[in-house]
Specification:
Low-confidence stretches: none
Number of helices: 7
Oligomer: single chain
Shape: globular
Strand content: 25-35%
Helix content: 10-25%
Order of helices and strands: EHHEEEEEHEHEEEEEEHHEEH
Mean pLDDT: 92
Distance between the termini: 51 Å
Length: 311
């Protein structure tokens, strides 16, 4: 929405009213919205920015400008050098997604997206699905790095989407979890749904969707353990929720109960979780293909610090 401006001549009828209350009445907006516009410097009298709680004078001109509002689902074409291309085929492109990049635009997210980065690099991707999710057949959380595949053609989208739905894709993650899981190799079969107390979190709940996580210990460091995880299902935050339910949250994952002291000692500002390997049937040749990603610097440092007993 383009920028809009209004000008109101002040007089006795508005004199003495609070700015936010008067704006709400004049523009038919909520008082909280009016207050936010004041706080952001969009309301002035004689060129002077005025605060929400100031009282209006009995003369002069009140000017209001509403800045251009960004469509939360618009694809912003923006490159991020850290995103590497691991494989580029006619039907798909495989990327190494860095932390801090979302799969696609969504309300509340204003950072870079995989879709926007690929557009910046000139990739033409599948147009199936919602426009902001074009080509996206699966997702990684903003705070999770690693291997991700994006469809470039309708044929690729159809076959890859079906492969994820039918669970014929091999999704392998590495996670650094607190403590030592017992047993050292096992399966977590527990339904996941919305957390009853927090809209933005998930939890193991009785009426949740079936969720199955297989894991095995790769290396134990005492305070934390490196595990390999194979996902049978693909629920939002599945690995984070399942290990938190076992009281072995991913190191650095403060949202799901990780120790902030250990996170700080390991230099972690996000959950230690990495999409290590992705295998699937090639949509064009029918052959099995696999792609792998190395640990980014922050995750590698945490493992090295534990291995060298620096923490």
């Amino acid at each position: 929405m383009p920028e809009q401006t209004w000008a109101f001549t002040l007089g006795p009828e508005t004199a003495g009213k609070r700015v936010d209350a008067a704006l709400a009445q004049l523009l038919g907006i909520s008082r909280s919205s009016a207050a936010a516009w004041c706080s952001n410097g969009h309301v002035t009298i004689a060129g002077r920015v005025i605060g929400k709680s100031e009282r209006l004078p009995d003369h002069g001109e009140l000017r209001v400008s509403r800045p251009e509002e960004r469509d939360p689902l618009a694809v912003v074409v923006e490159d991020v050098e850290d995103m590497k291309i691991l494989g580029d085929e006619d039907d798909f492109v495989v990327i190494d997604k860095p932390v801090g990049v979302a799969a696609h635009p969504s309300p509340g997210w204003v950072g870079p997206t995989v879709v926007g980065i690929l557009a910046a690099r000139g990739y033409r991707i599948s147009t199936s699905g919602a426009a902001e999710r074009a080509g996206i057949v699966h997702r990684l959380d903003v705070g999770t790095s690693g291997v991700m595949v994006v469809a470039k053609t309708e044929h690729g989208y159809t076959l890859l989407k079906r492969a994820f739905k039918d669970r014929t894709v091999d999704k392998v993650y590495h996670a650094l979890v607190q403590g030592l899981p017992d047993p050292l190799e096992g399966t977590i079969d527990a339904p996941i749904g919305r957390h009853p107390g927090y809209d933005w979190r998930f939890a193991v709940v009785e009426d949740g969707r079936p969720s199955v996580t297989h894991y095995k210990v790769l290396e134990a460091f005492g305070r934390a353990t490196l595990v390999e995880v194979h996902l049978e299902t693909g629920r939002t935050h599945q690995i984070r929720v399942h290990f938190s339910a076992l009281r072995h949250p991913c190191a650095g994952d403060l949202t799901y109960g990780a120790d902030p002291k250990l996170a700080a000692e390991l230099g972690l500002t996000r959950q230690w979780l990495h999409a290590k390997r992705l295998g699937f049937t090639h949509p064009g040749t029918g052959e099995w293909v696999e792609y792998e990603s190395g640990y980014p610097a922050d995750l590698a440092y945490a493992v090295e610090a534990l291995a060298e007993h620096r923490v």
